[in-house]
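Changelog-adjacent note: as of this version, every example in the card shows the full chain rather than a window. The one below runs 150 residues end to end.
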Amino acid sequence: MKSFLVAFLFFIGFTGFSQDNHIVKTEDGRRVLLKADFTWEYIDLKKPKEVEQVEIQKPNPSNGNTCELAKDFVEPKLNKKIQTQLKKGRATMAHVKQKVAKDLKCDVEDVVLLSASETKASGTYNFCVNGTKVTYKRTGHSIVKKIKLF
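Full-length structure tokens:
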């Protein structure tokens, strides 16, 4: 009786997974369901409305995310011993600045270090890039932009 029940459940499960339906989009934007028995039907009966392309302007950052540097501003000096150790993994300050410039699509000269706290294992760096404050963090040799969740 158990073997019959197992065989029956296997058959039911196998037939459920053997049906292979696909959803595709047509050129006019409607979605179509392609069934395993070579039939099809529209999921979206109406054509989607044409949406006009509107140019979106970036708002001026006015929420304290701007930075203005004095003309005589000097970047803080970093620990040479830690920077020498990070050179092997390409995580020195020069590499971090290249990463920031690449992410924000600007020149390396536009990236100015405001403050840094680092150890051999990790670091947090605050930059001023074209008038905007940006924070990056380093864990080991990987460098990523720090995000705020709340």
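Structural remarks: The longest strand covers residues 111-118.
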